[in-house]
Write a structure and sequence with these properties.
It is built from five helices and four strands, in the order ααβββαααβ. By secondary structure, the chain is of the alpha+beta class. Helix 1 packs across helix 2 and helix 3 crosses helix 5.
Length: 166
């Protein structure tokens, strides 16, 4: 009887070894295929494009590393357009230019920029300005208005350094 159990155990071990080897082989193929796909989609394109891809990457890195000059406007204190209560907004805004200040007409346009922003901000209700999406929308509207006023140079970003509604 002991011999019968030993002979049954040997084929079971051989079958489990085959299963383990197959699972290992499938695992290696999956990891290898995944790595190859990642290399193809991530690095293969750069190898094909060569110099063009490298030049584009260095240009993008240069844009990320060197922000344009940031100009600060005097703080705004104004009434909002709320109908039920009188609400005030105090906001400090900084504008990032796309080139050095000397190459733009920003210094000459500051009064026109402040006027455009006063009209824009005073037409908004506090409910809109309290939300994150409202602040994003007003930031985009500020960029459009300021870029419409400036003829040389453009605004790349708008930063709120103070934003108080009372």
């Amino acid at each position: 009887m002991a011999d019968e159990t030993a002979t049954e155990a040997e084929p079971a071990k051989a079958g489990s070894r085959k299963k383990m080897m197959m699972l290992g082989l499938v695992g290696v193929l999956l990891f290898g295929g995944g790595g190859g796909a990642a290399w193809f989609f991530m690095g293969g394109e750069k190898a094909e494009n060569g110099k063009h891809a490298k030049a584009q990457d260095t240009h993008e890195e240069a844009n990320l590393e060197e922000p344009g000059p940031v100009m600060e406007l005097e703080p705004f204190l104004l009434n909002l357009a709320d109908r039920d209560e009188q609400r005030f907004l105090k906001v400090s805004i900084k504008l990032e230019l796309d080139r050095p200040e000397e190459e733009t007409d920003y210094p000459n346009k500051v009064p026109a920029i402040r006027d455009a922003l006063l009209v824009l901000l005073s037409s908004k209700e506090s409910q809109l300005l309290r939300t994150v999406n409202g602040k994003r929308r007003i930031r985009e509207e500020i960029m459009i208005r300021v870029n419409g006023v400036m003829s040389k140079g453009k605004i790349l970003n708008v930063f709120f350094t103070d934003f108080i509604i009372q």
